[in-house]
Design a protein that fits this description.
Oligomer: single chain
Distance between the termini: 32 Å
CATH class: Alpha Beta
Number of domains: 1
Shape: globular
Strand order of the largest sheet: 1-3-2-4-5-6-7
Strand content: 5-15%
CATH architecture: 3-Layer(aba) Sandwich
Largest sheet: 7 strands, mixed
Helix content: 40-55%
Order of helices and strands: EEHEHEHEHHHHEHEH
Number of strands: 7
CATH superfamily: Alpha/Beta hydrolase fold, catalytic domain
Length: 249
């Protein structure tokens, strides 16, 4: 069972974090949304108080997130968490009120784009070398590759060191294409967000949005770390969730 704190009141929103950083850091600027929504911020296996797993694996973690949807929830995922959210949504589509994803790591959906193919190849090399690399070296390569706005200190400790070690044995998120056609067939609304910093992620998000029939947004300012934009991300998410609730009503 995942460590999945809740706060606020209103319709349930389950927010799934990505790699390296747990829920408390990833969603720290979204706490103001608790005025309108019940926020469930699970920690993926190995993060926070959640028990560890042998490796991070989007397909294996999807059922854990699907279970948190209860009788119905809005599902939000960022980066690796966006891939998990897509797989979770097809496990229990009847419990999904909406799906919002930002810069999912499923790069293979845009394979054939030379820039995307180059990043996939570099990523494959990084994941192959990961277990032999120094944790900080791996983290710097990873953050540079995805365009993270987070600063990596000279010495890693605490949660950041633990997150880098989890990254070393994470399943590449492009290893299996997400079930886009099955998601597109579901009636709940979808929103795909990018950070306007990377031709690769713009291409991936364009493909995912088109194939899902999703709304599309660009929120610049923090690179890949889109939830860290705070108000800009919160306003767009709140507006989308509110519109979804109005449609359901």
């Amino acid at each position: 069972m995942l460590d999945a704190p809740r706060s606020g009141s209103g319709p349930l929103v389950v927010l799934v974090h990505g790699s390296v950083l747990g829920a408390a850091v990833t969603w720290r600027k979204q706490q103001s949304l608790a005025r309108h929504w019940t926020l469930c911020t699970p920690n993926r296996p190995g993060f926070g108080a959640s028990p560890p797993a042998e490796r991070g694996d989007f397909e294996a973690e999807a059922p854990l997130i699907a279970e948190l949807l209860g009788d119905g929830a809005h599902l939000v995922g960022h980066s690796y968490g966006a891939v998990i959210a897509m797989f979770a949504a097809v496990l229990r589509p009847e419990a999904v009120r909406s799906l919002t994803i930002s810069e999912p790591g499923c790069l293979s959906v845009a394979a054939g784009n030379p820039a995307v193919d180059a990043v996939i190849e570099n990523g494959n090399q990084l994941f192959r070398r990961g277990p032999q690399m120094d944790p900080r070296e791996l983290l710097v390569f990873f953050r540079d590759g995805v365009g993270s706005a987070n600063v990596t200190p000279e010495e890693l400790d605490g949660e950041l060191l633990a997150g880098a070690r989890l990254l070393m044995r994470e399943r590449p998120p492009w290893e299996l294409n997400p079930p886009l056609e099955r998601l597109a067939a579901q009636p709940f609304r979808k929103l795909v967000i990018s950070g306007g910093h990377s031709d690769v992620f713009e291409a991936v998000c364009d493909v995912v949005a088109e194939r899902l029939g999703a709304e599309r947004a660009v929120i610049p300012g923090r690179g890949h770390s889109i939830p860290a934009t705070g108000d800009a991300y919160n306003e767009r998410l709140h507006a989308f969730l509110t519109a979804c609730e109005a449609t359901r009503a």
